[in-house]
Amino acid sequence: MSQYFYELLGLMAVFSIMIVSPGADFALVVRQSIVYGRRSAIITSFGIGASLLFHISYTVLGLGLIVSKSLYLFSMLKWAGAAYLFYLGVKALRAPAPEAPAGVAESKPTRQLSGLRCFLMGFVTNALNPKAVLFFLSLFSALVSHETPILVQAGYGVVMSTALISWFIAVSVFFTMQSVRDRFVAWGRWFNRVTGVVFIGLGVKLATQQAS
Residue 174 has what DSSP assignment? Predict the structure, then answer.
């Protein structure tokens, strides 16, 4: 049992650094917070967490090794992910300015997305990232023993997913605080232009990612 505890500690030590590193997931949650509000951002966070369980599931089953060694599969995943980030970027560039709330305790934009759409946005953004394939494959290969039961490894995944969701919920709450959100709303369309360029830049970075 102590072996599994130390394995989990090792995984979380590395994973915690990855969680707080800005990337497409972070940019998406921030944008959801500013444009659509806390509810949308939190649901998006759960989508990202579910996608992490998806990555860990195929890593544990050994499918991640197949993808990482197949240039064709890796490229398909890479270009799909880049295309989706380009799509998010163009959509952000064309979107109207975020709406400023008027005298409410929490920012509640009139424009809303369905819960399912928010969840899928989070899931797809994370799922189509081939770097996640390499990250979890290398992380589990280095820190988890081959003798560790699959159910225990699945438990690691649940803990990691919970930590990721908790982090992005905290991000959602912070960026939907009225004092914080109002500063971004004050940028008007510049907020959309900046986030659009960020998504497109992340797409270009992803498109140039090489399997290793």
Answer: H
